[in-house]
Design goal:
The chain is an all-alpha fold. It has one domain: Orthogonal Bundle (MetI-like fold). 80% of the residues lie in helices and 0% in strands. It contains 9 helices and no strands. It is elongated. The N terminus and C terminus are likely disordered.
């Protein structure tokens, strides 16, 4: 059976595509690696600030004051209802009109305000998952509501919030690509710059996508290991080891 010219050229095209991807990686791996580091810094800083924003909004959410509940619901609803790119542009130009900040820090704060709404729901769910009887027991011991929240509820809620916060970190890692439109040279921004020079967008975005994929896989494995340790530490008995059998009493001790 005789192959058509298209079928004969197909392996050559695939080989050239692989070679092109490898050449782009070789020529720009330093830029991509530095940009990946900036992406990690953006994600870590935004989640750091989002943790404080989310914790504050979560307190408003679980408060008994109706006005505070409305404020928290309005903030969360606004963030959920607007596309992220619109929020970034609005917050970036809003922050820049009030404070003169570098684009990196302005982008980090904009991402933090966006992620704060989702972190608030994470903390709210973790706080409300704690048995109400523990609060009542703490109050019966003479603790005030704020002291019971700080010493009894928050330590347990923080442990339960760690796995979803890890997932939010991974989501924020991918969302940080939009900061490239603010002029920050993170991973996606580096891909935009490289493909504008070599006119090979598919191969360039493929290399950037591999960087994102590797980072997400690494943090997913770390998160799974952390979840396993937390599951073991929260079991009855603490360390997760098998309970030791009581030693048999000696005859002398029985008498």
């Amino acid at each position: 059976m005789r192959l058509s010219p298209w079928a004969m050229r197909r392996p050559i095209k695939e080989q050239m595509l692989v070679q092109s991807v490898w050449i782009i990686f070789q020529d720009n791996w330093v830029m991509f690696t530095k940009a990946a580091g900036i992406t990690l810094e953006l994600t870590a800083l935004s989640l750091f600030f989002a943790t404080f924003i989310g914790l504050f909004v979560a307190f408003l959410k679980v408060s008994r004051v109706r006005v505070l509940n409305i404020i928290a619901d309005g903030y969360i609803g606004l963030i959920r209802g607007l596309p992220l790119i619109v929020q970034l542009m609005f917050l970036y130009f809003g922050i820049s009109s009030i404070l003169t900040l570098p684009r990196f820090w302005a982008g980090s704060l904009a991402l933090a305000i966006h992620a704060g709404a989702y972190v608030a729901e994470i903390f709210r769910g973790a706080i409300q998952s704690i048995d109400r009887g523990q609060v009542e027991a703490a109050r019966s011991l003479g603790m005030k509501q704020s002291l019971a929240m700080r010493r009894v509820i928050l330590p347990q809620a923080a442990l339960r919030a760690i796995p979803p916060l890890g997932n939010q970190f991974i989501i924020g890692l991918k969302d940080s690509s939009l900061v490239a439109y603010l002029g920050v040279l993170e991973l996606y921004g580096a891909a935009l710059l490289v493909q504008a020079e070599n006119f090979e967008p598919f191969q360039t975005y493929f290399v950037a996508g591999m960087y994102y994929l590797v980072m997400v896989i690494v943090f997913t494995l770390i998160l799974k290991k952390l979840e396993g340790r937390l599951a073991v530490s929260t079991r009855p008995g603490g360390s997760g080891d098998k309970p030791k059998r009581p030693r048999p009493r000696s005859e002398g001790a029985a008498t």
